[in-house]
Specification:
alpha/beta; 6-stranded mixed sheet; 4-stranded antiparallel sheet; 10 strands
Length: about 260
């Protein structure tokens, strides 16, 4: 387990999200401190992915406040000034999706260095050196020049992780990163995520059904139920001293 320092990297206050008449998030409060790994779990449709998408403003929160690395934004409609603040916020929050979303016309290395070069203005030489380092970190040093179509799903997802890390984010958001993978490929992606937590002490919010990973790596787990965080605690508290029958029922179904 990495060390957690006292400062929150992510702070969510009174977060609500409606899609028309449907309220998907019903007033979420969450703080994630530097170096902390928080696993968010719960059944489909409970609001987990929507939370991540609101944290980096892929979805506009209907109400509430999101703060990432000191950049604080209110929910509600977008204005021109807010668009720039959202761009700044996203530089601090790396996101890895269920689908790998790699650029098919770029090599693995090309995918990893695109952001630093075009968004941050890093020189191609520097970005390339750092990109090769990151590909080595995710176990793909030998795949730098391969195109995504030549890579397995697990390898593509590891490239996607390297790509997010290349932006040097303060927090990594993982939205069910293994759910699109064949069972034999899940382990290689979880191993990379495990090393981010233990070796790099990366701040991470992970939406996942992989309870073995949660038990081993999470500092804290949050059980989502019908748009609220019904229960949260350490893995030991969640697995061994569940307070709510809904949490127990979910765990019994997935364990």
């Amino acid at each position: 387990m990495g060390a957690i320092d006292g400062q929150p990297v992510v702070r969510v206050e009174r977060l609500r999200k409606r899609f028309g008449p449907l309220e998907v998030l019903k007033g979420i409060d969450l703080e994630v401190r530097r170096g902390e790994v928080v696993v968010v779990f719960g059944r489909s449709g409970s609001g987990k992915s929507t939370l991540l998408r609101c944290i980096n403003f892929l979805e506009d929160p209907t109400e509430g406040v999101v703060e990432v690395a000191g950049i604080r934004l209110e929910g509600g409609h977008r204005t021109r000034g807010k668009r720039e603040a959202i761009r700044q916020l996203r530089l601090h929050a790396g996101m890895v999706f269920q689908q790998f979303n790699l650029f098919p016309h770029m090599t693995a290395l090309g995918n990893v260095i695109e952001g630093p070069v075009t968004v941050k203005g890093v020189s191609p030489e520097e970005a390339r050196a750092r990109g090769l380092e990151l590909l080595a970190k995710v176990g793909l040093a030998d795949k730098a020049d391969e195109y995504p179509i030549r890579l397995s799903g697990g390898q593509q997802q590891r490239v996607a992780i390297a790509r997010a890390l290349a932006m040097e984010p303060d927090v990594m958001l993982f939205d069910e990163p293994t759910s699109a993978l064949d069972p034999e490929l899940i382990g290689e992606v979880l191993a990379v995520m495990r090393s981010l937590a233990t070796d790099l002490h990366m701040t991470m919010i992970v939406v996942t059904h992989e309870m073995g990973f949660a038990r081993e790596v999470a500092h804290r787990m949050c059980f989502f139920h019908e748009g609220v965080i019904l229960e949260e605690g350490t893995p030991q508290e969640i697995f061994e001293h569940t307070r709510f029958p809904e949490t127990r029922k979910f765990l019994d179904a997935v364990l």
